[in-house]
Amino acid sequence: MEDVAAAKRGNQKIRDMVLSMVVIGAVVAGIYTVIPHDENADPLKTVDYRVELSTAQRSAPYPVLAPQGLPKEWRATSVTYRGDEGKAWHLGFLDPQKEYVAVEQSTNDPAKYVPKVTLSAKDTGKTQEAGGRTWQVWKGEKYDALVRTDKGATTVVMGTAIDERLAEMAAALKTKQPQQPQTPQAPQTPQPK
Fold this sequence. Notes:
Structural class: alpha+beta
Strand order of the largest sheet: 2-3-4-8-7-6-5
């Protein structure tokens, strides 16, 4: 008799679990239909990175780089400056073909930093000119990169974009240091004659 009662309780638990899943599924389907969504909308939002750039330029011990003069089809999608993590500057973009291109800068050891941000890309031993500067060419399974170390920092232009787009970004990189605040001069008092 106890075995029959235990079997009935087991069947009830399974039935209750299935009913609960049906109710949860109905609630999720209802929420999905009520919340407006546009399947053609671009899920990535463009970010304005001017404030973070200004902060990084004031804080970093190296000239922080950002592109100038890129066509409007280039969209900035992410930006960070981490002073506590090797003074690391990151600026991510989508190029006109919607491929990822990022500018990474840091004071960390280049031998460790470059493979970390490029997800294990390797130095090919080749170089490329871009923006009047010589860059090392790195290739990887996920990201390719142009790399250079100068003025205490390593700069990496990397991404899934074609080599020409990486070079276009590297050539557009400029340092625009923030204006130093003008210190007011004390008023000149006329000297008695």
